[in-house]
Amino acid sequence: MKPSLTPRSLAGRLSLSVAMTSVVLILLVLGTGLLVIMQRIDAQMEEQARRSAAFLSESLAVPLWSLDFDAARAVGQALAQDKVVGLVEILGARGEPIYRHAKGEKLLLERFGQVIHDGQVIGTVRLGLNDTPRREALWAMAGAGAGLVALTITLQFLLQAVLFRPLLRKPFAALDGLVGAYAAGDFSPSPPPIRYAEFAPLVSLLLDMGRTIREQMESLRKSEERFSLALDAANDGLWDLDIPSGTAFYSPRYYTMLGYEPGEFPATLDSWRGMLHPDDRERAEAALAACLEDGAPYEVEFRQRDKNRQWRWLLSRGRVVERDAEGRASRMVGTHADISERKQAEELLRQSEEKFARLFRLSPDAIIVVHLATEQVLDVNDAFSRMFGFKHTEAVGRTTGELGLYQNAAVRDAIFGTLRDGGQVENLEIEARRKDGAPLGCSLSCQVLLLDGQPHILTVFRDITETKKMQEMMIQTEKMLSVGGIAAGIAHEINNPLGIVLQAAQNLVQRTRPDFVKNQEAAQAIGLDLELVTNYMRMRKLDVFLEDIQSAALRASAIIRHMLDFSRRSESKRRICDLAAIADKALALAQNDYDLKKSYDFKRIRVDREYAADIPAVHCTETEIEQVLLNLLRNAAQAMAEARPPVEEPRIAIRLSRRPGSLRIEVEDNGPGMPPEVQRRAFEPFFTTKAPGVGTGLGLSVSYFIVTKGHGGAMRLESKPGSGSCFIIDLPAEEA
User: Which stretches does DSSP call E strand in 324-365?
Assistant: First the structure.
């Protein structure tokens, strides 16, 4: 009678019950903790909203009173950086909007406040907080809960595997092992340990049965041992062929090496022929016929199909042992040996040699084989000919010294010395030399290997010219990022005293105006004539000094804004823009730029527009890309104007093209170009080759960070002294 239900594991049920109870308790504790945390977060957000609104009102009192709306916006922007703040709104005394920042998120709390200065309400503020702390707390608790549940489930499985299952199944596993050993023909296993008295009678019965069967098997084995010992000791299959009848005797090993049970196929000459591989049949039968007719030694390799329908290689040896009265062969004996592994090894060796030859010929790296003793080149691959310019016939038979592959002969001698001492060379950067004498930067690896018993050197040359360029670009990028961080720190530190200077200058202007009521009241209180003060300031040019202070401070503020561009991504709104239109607009602005002080006139420069027809619209900040192009155009014009001797026909080319994965902008001039030491520092902040007072050295730095950090693109420079300069900008295509 079959059971109606599949039996379940008792160990599994016990561990599952423990796990479910633990999960319920974890969920109850997490739920209670979440309620308490939410209450604390609400209280903290109430306090933060109150303090932030008060701070905003106090911080705006002086800027709004002095009408310094830029400073007021800066305060609002600083507060808006807090991820919890979802809304910051600043209104003037008449309700006019001064600054508003809204992240578009759902607001959890809102607070209003008044900006008061000397008892007067000069503005209002509105502050809103989002529910970010709540969501973060919820996700944190959810993560903790998931981790605890996962840990509980893991512990449940460990509990089942380590405690419950071994406790319940070990006794049965011991009995099962004993029965399995008997079924496999092993009647001498050690008695299993008995921990429970209930299993002792059953184990004793099984052991008695095993002893009885073992005695019977031992008696049978001894009766067959003499016959099978000789055949079983030999790994080869034996065969004895009766030639007139075509019948044979095959030893058990002959069957088993083909995967059959002894006697599973007929022991006949026709069976042997039927299992031969079609490609080997003619050769095997010819060797057999030659042995039968001429007495030639019989030794042949062929393939036969095994029971799994796979081909196995066999080596057959034999000889004729009996002939009839007429000299015809009547009996032949021999052996079959399985040589499949040897054949596989030979095939693998052949494939390995073929792969090496292909890798040697098709490798993108230049490879040469040199005799260690004579230092003559034995072979070179095609990549070597392409890299160094030597044909195969020109290189083979000559030494590396005769070919002049090494710029420094001492380096070559050191490499050969290291290899002769048993060492090897890995990734050694050297200066190599092409056939035409041009230098070539390479990474060299060498190793000694034996060919035909002779030591040879296998040398791999890898062209690292592009790699070195990439490394220099990475170093430049890292340097610029570091300098950008330093510049941002300096800018923030300068901003504080600069704000005080601007505010003090503004207050001096405001508090010396004769038309302000409070100024008039204060002057009357001390008997001072404001008109005389104003006349005095004009005569002594104090008003001019104040204007100079404000102008210098504003210029310093502009420089600081450029410095801050190094360390933050642009917050300007992006949109879909026509790249060609941006380039044309920047060019129009540059062509109207005539500066006597800088001694250049853009209208005298020929400009070539080379715009590809398939340029798509690009997702970017139009004013920033326009600023970059305008900066490059002005720099090119200034460089050509200052060139000595002057450029006879100054020209600038603007190219727009589409590349795989990017859109490319190129601005190229035929000016004096730049030496390498200037190129390496071209994008550094405050680095300039212009005369003092002509430039700040921030133009290319700001352009670099607009492209790389603001738009996720790349910007590089290609220039040679006397051959002009070309700035290349790549904007990501996925933003198009």
Answer: 329-338
Residue 372: other Cβ atoms inside 10 A: 16
Q: Which amino acid is located at 442 in the chain?
A: C
272 contacts 367 by C-beta, under 8 angstroms = no
**pLDDT one-digit tens code per residue, 595-618:** 444 556 777 888 999 999 888 888
How many residues in the chain? 736
Sign of CA dihedral 262, 265, 270, 274: negative
- Helix, strand and coil percent figures for the chain, each rounded to 5: 50, 25, 25
Q: Is 445 helix (H, G, I), strand (E, B) or coil?
A: strand
In whole numbers, what is the pLDDT of the chain averaged over residues? 78
Question: Strand 107-117's sheet: what is its strand order?
Answer: 97-102, 85-92, 120-130, 107-117
Residue type, 80: A
Beta pairing, strands 651-659 & 606-611: parallel
Contact partners, residue 452, CB within 8 Å, separation at least 6: none
Half-sphere exposure of 589 (CA within 13 A, CB side): 15
DSSP letter at 424? -
Q: Please report, for residues 65, 166, 370, 554, 670, the alpha-carbon distance to residue 194 in angstroms, rounded to integers and kept in the order given.
A: 96, 14, 72, 95, 97
Whose CA is closest to 396, among 369, 422, 419, 421? 369
| Backbone φ, ψ for residue 245 (5° rounding) | -90, -20
Choose among 79, 83, 87: nearest CA to 134: 83
Is residue 672 packed enough to be buried (19+ CB in 10 Å), middle (13-18) or exposed (0-12)? Answer: buried
d(CA 520, CA 530): 7
Q: Please answer whether residues 642 and 599 qualify as being in contact, where contact means their C-beta atoms are separated by less than 8 angstroms.
A: yes
- The DSSP code for 398 is S
Whether the pLDDT of residue 6 is over 60: the answer is: no
Answer whether 0.70 is exceeded by the pTM: no
β-partners of residue 606 are 651
Residue tagged 């010819």 (tokens): 286
Q: Tokens standing for 416? A: 């050969």
Distances (CA, A) of 630 to 48, 556, 584, 593, 729: 46, 22, 10, 10, 14
Label the pairing between strands 606-611 and 618-620: unpaired
The secondary structure of 551-576, three-state, reads HHHHHHHHHHHHHHCCCCCCCCCCEE
Write out pLDDT tens, residues 111-156: 787 878 777 777 888 877 777 777 777 787 777 777 777 777 777 6
Tokens of 556: 């310093």
Per-residue three-class SS string for 83-151 = CCEEEEEEEECCCCEEEEEECCCCEEEEEEEEEEECCEEEEEEEEEEECHHHHHHHHHHHHHHHHHHHH
Rounded CA separation 126/91 (Å) = 8
Q: What are the beta bridge partners of residue 128?
A: 87, 110
User: Rounded to whole angstroms, how far apart are CA atoms 428 and 199?
Assistant: 72
Task: Check residue 528 and give its pLDDT.
Answer: 85
